[in-house]
Structures are given as structure tokens and as C-alpha cells.
Amino acid sequence: MKENLLNKSNKLFLTVNDIANNLSISKESAKVAATRYVKSGSLIRLKRNLYITSEKFKGLTESELFQIANFIQVPSYISLTTALSYYGITTQQLQNIIESISLKRSKVQKVKNIQFRYYKIKNSFYTGFQINNNYFIAQPEKAFADAVYLTSIGKYSVDFESIDFKKLNSTKVAEFLETINSSSITINFWERLCKRYKI
Length: 199
What we know:
43% helix; two-stranded antiparallel ribbon
């Protein structure tokens, strides 16, 4: 079948232009083909003009899932429990959930069996991330600061009992939290955490 040629592409994601080139068809025909392949299940639409073959999606690595999370909502970076688990800072494991911080809006997008969750934060707090293996991920302390901030305002819930605080630099966490400026609620929440867990 012609769509099998798409699995041979060395690109993780495919645009309409990629589909046209791989199948040696026009761009207009590629648009029609993409719609047909999505309906048949051989192609998955991640967002407008961004697809992945079902075959490739089945074998995605953690790194590739993180790349997809970055692409579904731009700009965004991996954070919260997903990042804390990646760094070995929490024993809490999320099954088939990838969490990210976003500037645009909070939303959940399901792709097959994976939930991509995005949490919106203020522009001033959109910092403290780095590029790693072709995806953006929060630094350990920023991933924790994001969790503290969103939990303090009731928009997230983190299991603090599962956190290994010895793996975090509390000074860095405090510095990130101070960039929120307006949220004394968050600073008070952080201070209570410090007392309770002797951070």
C-alpha cells in the first residue's frame, strides 16, 4: 500500500509537503491522502499540518514523546511530575500522561492512549528550561517550582511525600518562585512546605 512509504521516512513528523514528496504526488493530492489515511487509522493527526504514522507512534521512545509534546503546543516545555520523574526526584509515576508548561492555554489533548496535558503560566514565570535531545524540558528546580506554584493556586496536585528533596537545590527553587512576584500565596505555601519537610 502506498501509505507504507510514509513509514520509511526518516522524519518523526510529517507535513503535507513531506507526504507529497514521499508519495510523489501534488500538495493538493497529499492533503486528500492525509485525510483519507487519518480516517483509515494509518496516519495520526497531531495538529494542523502535522502527522505521524500509526506504526511510528507505537514504538515512540520517551524522548520522542517529549518532542511531540513540544510540537503539539508551541511554545511549551516538559515539566511538573513528568520532569520530576525523568530526573528521579519523585517516585510518583504517571501512566500515559505527559505534562508540559505552556504560554498559550491550559488544555488536554489525547493522542491514541497518551494524554498530553498543558498548564498555562504567566509570561514572567516562563523560564528555567533547557533543550535536551531535541526537546525542551524544565530544569529540576523549575519543574518543582512549577508544581509548587500551580498547586498553591489550586490548579495542580503533586504528591510531596514522593519527592526526594535532597536532590533539589532549595535556593534555586526559591529564586524561581520569587519571579512570580504577585503571588504571596505561592511564597507562603513554599514556606510551609519548607517547614513541614525541613527543606
